[in-house]
Task: structure prediction
Amino acid sequence: MSQTALFQLGTGLETSTARKEDFAIATSAAMAEERDDHFVVRNGVRCAGAHLIIDLYDCEKLADLDHIEAALRRCVEASGATLLHIHLHHFEPNGGVSGVAVLAESHISIHSWPENGYAALDVFMCGNADPDACVPVLREAFKPQRVDVNVILRGQSV
Amino acid sequence: MSQTALFQLGTGLETSTARKEDFAIATSAAMAEERDDHFVVRNGVRCAGAHLIIDLYDCEKLADLDHIEAALRRCVEASGATLLHIHLHHFEPNGGVSGVAVLAESHISIHSWPENGYAALDVFMCGNADPDACVPVLREAFKPQRVDVNVILRGQSV
Result:
């Protein structure tokens, strides 16, 4: 990853409002109809997709499996992605949850440490889906006091 | 993510040989027996776990679902992780594969674009597992001409 591939998006509750970008489709319309993992252009860079590394601090409801699954499903819906498979696991004794949603456009994952109020997520989306749309959903679901979002543009050299 | 959280590990076939680091357990031995997602110390930094962002270029066998599943399982074994769930999806018409392995120590994901010879993976592991051990497994499985590995230390502020 080159330094230019990593966009530091800052911290704090207002982060997501400043980071909307245009997605342009790098492939033909015909190809877009057949598959959802086509390459995109983001910030002028052609890439396989945008990979958001999301850290949520001082959250609530991180041990609630049903709540976390519902949040993941709302992320999929908000981003316009297509859910292919979802799986969550509840750990004992700390109540942490690991969950993954496999998408036609790649995946979303979450791992929570409720005893620390911390959750680590990644949202990787190709094609027409809008991964940024997940951030406000996560803010609403887990009420984090701090959110870090970093974007990696995958496959720039392809 | 601070800049110090991102270690550019270079490219080329010899990358993985230079990047072995010591993992030290940041939690008590008693806690380690109960769960596999405890925080670790890596490069002197206490964190929830190491998240490897792995890009494989000019690969082979990226449309072979069974081969990809076997490679993921070998990654889990090599890293000393515990597999909880695995799911792979075969896309048409390009033959690309999306796969996720949910671990007691977090997850591994792969998304392949066989028409471009490109695969995007991430390996997130907490606890005692060694995510670096996945890299030589992936080199052997997919024969990439170029491998980029970047490490993000998640949850440093917790």
About this structure: The first strand of chain B starts at residue 6 and ends at 8. Helices of chain B lie at 29-34, 65-79, 134-142.
